[in-house]
Specification:
By secondary structure, this protein is of the alpha/beta class. 39% of the residues lie in helices and 16% in strands.
Amino acid sequence: MLACMKIALTGGSGFLGRYVIRHLVDELGHQVVALTRRDDPAPDRQGLHWMQGDLADPASLDRLTDGADAVVHAGLMRGGDSFMDHPDDPVGYFDTNVLGTLRLLQSSTDRGINRLVFVSSGAVHQHVVQGLALDEDHPHRPGSFYGAAKASAEDLVHAYGLSGRLAAATVRPPTIYGVDDPISDSRWYALVKDLVDGKEVAATGGGKCVHAADVAKAIGLVLTAPQSKVAGQTFNCCDRFFSEVEVAQCVQSLGHTSARFTGPAKSAGHPMATEKIRSLGMEFGGTDLLRQTIKQLVQAAEVA
């Protein structure tokens, strides 16, 4: 792959998209053209150009892919306030998100683009098959339309990637955390705010997580890895299981020693295998990156 690429991006105005832009443009020096449905996108800046369009509109996807060296598909039309909400219009939801992925794959193929990376979700196997490793070959068993749409799109990416028509691959993160904008939308902010305010918190939750910056890093690795290693492949992208007890303990260690919480600490029942993405050179932020993030949330909560 080229040292400096022109990368077409969907989902650039979302939470993850902002981290992807920062990594691809500011850290790796690529040029990004980002698709947005917004009438008033952020202003263009060096290395970044916004283009108005929609996954449901083939013409805007053709404009997006025109002249691109690679594509990152992180866009999604939500069915409600949450990713997991059941859509009011299931047919329209699938048309935009699944057929939109197909439109993007075909547009990329028609233009001879070298690489496409699709961002999926651990929701594709929400119902885990007992006795099987939670690796990239684990059967798809989604329990939501969101998971079903991501699973269907993954299959399309496999079909294009394994056929040789397009070096398409999937990065599959579980829950993504990080500092959002506004910061109050960040994962764990409400928990941190209650602890900072001296409220007793039931810290009984937890989940498999990965920082948005690490997902962006994984995307960059898959974009530039040899085609033989990525075409038609899926790469789990999970740091590890983080419990709310661990988050609360971070808050305590950052000066709020009187923060009160009850457990027990939740633990992962099915760890997510990540050997494939690590084989490309991926290193996750782990406890240090969690602590950095919680420190930013604590600082925001202290002045809120």
